[in-house]
Prior knowledge:
The structure holds two protein chains of two kinds.
Chain A: H1 2-10, H2 20-23, H3 34-37, H4 45-54, H5 60-70, H6 77-89, E1 91-94, H7 102-113, E2 127-131, H8 135-141, E3 148-153, H9 163-175, E4 180-184, H10 187-191, H11 195-209, E5 213-217, H12 220-223, H13 226-238, E6 243-245, H14 257-274, E7 279-281, H15 289-302, E8 315-317, H16 320-333
Parallel strand pairs in A: 1-2, 1-8, 2-3, 3-4, 4-5, 5-6, 6-7
Chain B: E1 27-31, E2 37-42, H1 46-65, H2 68-84, H3 86-97, H4 101-121, H5 125-129, E3 131-133, E4 139-147, E5 150-154, H6 162-173, E6 177-181, H7 188-198, E7 207-210, H8 214-223, E8 229-231, H9 237-247, E9 253-255, E10 276-284
Amino acid sequence: MTCHYARRYARLVTMSLKADAPKAPTPPTPPEDSPSALADVTASDASLRRFLHGLPGVDAVGLEARAASLGTRSIKTTAKAYALDLAISMIDLTTLEGADTPGKVRALCAKGRNPDPTDRSTPPVAAICVYSDLVATAREALAGSGVAVASVATAFPAGRAARSVKLADTAEAVAAGADEVDMVIDRGAFLAGRYLSVFEEIVAVREACGDAHLKVILENGELATYDNIRRASWLAMLAGADFIKTSTGKVGVNATPANTLLMLQAVRDFRAATGRQIGVKPAGGIRTAKDAVKFLVLVNETAGPDWLSPTWFRFGASSLLNDLLMQRQKLGTGRYSGPDYVTVD
Amino acid sequence: MSEPLPVLKTYKLFVGGAFPRSESGRVYEVTDAKGQWLANAPLASRKDARDAVVAARKAFPRWSGATAYNRGQVLYRVAEMVQGRRDQFRAEVAAGDGLSKSKAAAVVDAAIDRLVWYAGWSDKVAQIAGGANPVAGPYFNLSTPEPTGVVAVLAPRDSSLLGLVSVLAPVLTTGNVAVVVASERAPLPALSLAEALATSDVPGGVVNVLSGATAELARPLAAHQDVNAIDLTGAEGELATELEILAAENLKRVRRPDPAEDFAAAPGTERLLGFLETKTVWHPTGV
């Protein structure tokens, strides 16, 4: 039976890296049998497990080599200017510290609205990401700016709390005005193989979100293997995530080019299978403009240009913005900039 | 026994405590005064200059925060290291500056003396550049000299070791960090001095040594917004003027070149006091 499922769904997932190139421009036309193709997958714990374990294994060496080779592209002049502005507009400017104060959040919001006061042509960031109790402060500070408020929820970052607590956390964040909710999956349940429990929790949080966008944090650093990351990506997408996010930024291993590439393959294959487009958000550890541009290359070459927009790709970052601004100033003036010309966060 | 295989030395840049090749992968041929090939030296690019500034900025809090006594000890140790490699420096100076063996030996000895002299100044400079100011009020008013920050140093073109030490040591003694552009014509003593610095407890990034075309490296350094001062000793004429204009943008402290400067003469305190900022505090007198 397992073999049967594995064969049945294997074609949904691209195994060969060669398939990357021609895939990019295809419009989201789902296969004929798409509504039924994945409908029965989540019917029971057993069928979900069969589906997730039937996904093709990840070639770790090939994946890392591909990510590394895409990181060697040289992006200069006008392309660099475009990439820097795009990267700035994709940032979820984040502060997730125990020491966050309303004042700090307001300062961050001011920076998000107008990242470089010396250059008004700088685009605003996509969102400000805070803990749920500070959503109201951020909402007020961002009124009328078009910058969204994102809130982490569900007992971030560990996710170790009762489901009722997690749902209440989510509902409070949304009630306070969050446009986007970043939830963490229950890694303990996932690693123990209780996939349906993880699935049901995401579905429940999805409902609690109402109209807010749901980003599901997989916490790749705790999932241990690339196979698990692929499985968790599909699980989150099946459960109704609008975005899948690499990590909380609170553990040792955060967003890497390789695990982001893997998630980009997953969203590409998911759209090909179902017609639904899901966003990707690498978070944590992306500090330099150079790194950010490498991720944009990954997006363009893996998922395709459809994902090159703040609607479908985000950076979760706090210090990245300063480096992007310094690079932007360098492009504009020809002078290398320094930390004296950006804010101290 | 056959002859041992001679090992040619690959000279490297010194950035952030490491010895990288130029980011650009370029090298250029260094010749002695008679035009004979000596070695290949890295031809640093503006990106190497940028990386050096980043490394220097990172090293600044620790070096400027070290006690003056400690900085003096470290500089003294640099002198010890140069002394231990005296023969190598003599050969490089003789070839690079076109000096006889005995003159080169005197130059190396003078450079060691110069290091020791500036090492002694580290915990004394505050006495001559700062002090208690008399004010008409119930306050103590104290001025203390503080380091300027990241200093770009264009080393003298013709005095490859003694000149270099004479411009670098005063910058370091007072707690500044340096990005040095070595003499374009004779960079080998500077690149070897970097090896002595690396083994003297000078924290990584405090001194960064670049070799290459002075004009190519000096322009981005002079324009760099995160460089606080620039010593134009190694620039001449129109280049020096252009660099001074570039440096004006962020109000860098600029030291103009003096073509008549004699590095063999006693240095005085002028260079020592050139890269300092005065901090003055008012403190109420207690009862």
